[in-house]
Amino acid sequence: MKSDTKPAVCVVGLGYIGLPTAAVIARSGCKVLGLDVSQEVVDTINRGEIHIEEVDLDGLVQGVVARGLLSASTEVAPADVFVIAVPTPFEKDGSGDHAPDISYVLAAGRTIAPVLKSGDVVILESTSPVGTTEQLRDLIAAIRPDLKIPQSDPGGLARETPDIAIAYCPERVLPGRILEELTNNDRSIGGVTPRCARKALAFYKRFVRGECVTTDARSAEMTKLVENAYRDVNIAFANELSIVSDRMGLDVWEVIRLANRHPRVNILSPGPGVGGHCIAVDPWFIVHGAPEETPLIRTARGVNDRKMHHVVAKAEALLEAHPEARVACLGLAFKANIDDFRESPARFVASRLARKFGARIRIVEPYAAQLPIEFTDTGVTQIDIDEALEECDILVVLVDHDVFRVVPLAERADKLVYDTRGIWPDQPRVVREDAARAALAV
Ligand code: SAJ
């Protein structure tokens, strides 16, 4: 790859991270081939359309495909830079110890290895347990003995300049703000060797405006896991406070608001649990790597998972205490203002209530065209927020969508509200206490 010419790039995996990444790289003028195992995904992108929802992504993909900068395929082709953005789920062995499954990363390595040539840069972006980038390196070395592969041990095998560079560079973008954060966030770039890090750095500088900081691959892998574990532990603290406050008859939002006036205290927001594909998953990669040394991270996961069940129990008690009341659950998404329903605690709570109370329950979710499959045959109906305010007596707030947040007090003052997100601090206090009393009665 000559520094004066734009590298040809191959992005492996066209999901929530891979597709926006491919599009942003293409926008910088590089020719990008996106690789995916799904023919349907490939066809969609080649039509200039997208298969996922993300703010402004449709227009960007349409533009770069139309300009011939982005195309998709199921077949690999030679490139100068390879970016791997495939999933790293848990192993499905049923042992329940949340072992990370890096088979998709290794499969991506097997796919690209045959087309690698001297001068190429291979970058892993998938959230990965510590040591994965070195495993990827070893796999490529085994498949391509003809290439000089970078070694982390400087006194080891390859003192000569390696043929290829291998690095780890995690994404840290927030769903709903992916395009903006892909460009503006700082990046940690971990090379298998310092030279590898420098090669990857030169690539990211083409489209990242945030600061790019180089390190070694293992530190960069751990950094990504630590960021999400940090957030999980802090949300667990807030969720534990909310349960304690229920028990003591206190308004947790009031307590947090007051505590956060301290200049060095910043407590996060309680909610119905932690959803999404990152924060509830990544901490386990650390726990799995060091089970004896991670009691805090493991406990935080448990606290956040138990919060979902606490919310279900409290809502059930509320509904049983008011058998005639019509109930609206507000929100199914895993967080505010997005249409992503995977691993959503709101969806979990609403579906449990739907199964138990059937036609008494209505769902308001402006981001869903229809209800997810588990609501079929429950008798539950989907209505909009105006209908909920007209028809329902109890509102269970599960997601802090802006459209819910802006409902004025006058339109909900007579409702019994269980607000798991604290969006209506002015809701009459008596309603909150009623909910808490009902829960304590179980
Ligand atoms: N949540 C709370 N209370 C809070 C904050 C969040 O209950 O105070 C809940 C949300 O409702 C949601 C879950 O936590 O259910 C996760 O939401 P989030 O907005 O904290 O994070 P994600 O999963 O959308 O994205 C995270 C981000 N990581 C951090 O903020 C440290 C993002 O930057 C990462 O790129 C992403 O994980 C990822 O891909 O790893």
Summarize the structure.
By secondary structure, the chain is of the alpha/beta class. It has 15 helices and 13 strands. It has an 8-stranded mixed beta sheet with strand order 3-2-1-4-5-6-7-8, with helices on both faces. A 5-stranded parallel beta sheet has the order 11-10-9-12-13.
Could you please describe the fold and organization of this structure?
Helix 7 links the parallel strand 7 and strand 8. With 442 residues, this protein is α/β, with parallel strands linked by helices. The longest helix is centred in the middle third of the chain and has 32 residues. Belongs to the UDP-glucose/GDP-mannose dehydrogenase family. It is an enzyme of class 1 (oxidoreductase). One of its GO terms (molecular function) is UDP-N-acetyl-D-mannosamine dehydrogenase activity. Pfam families: UDPG_MGDP_dh, UDPG_MGDP_dh_C, UDPG_MGDP_dh_N.
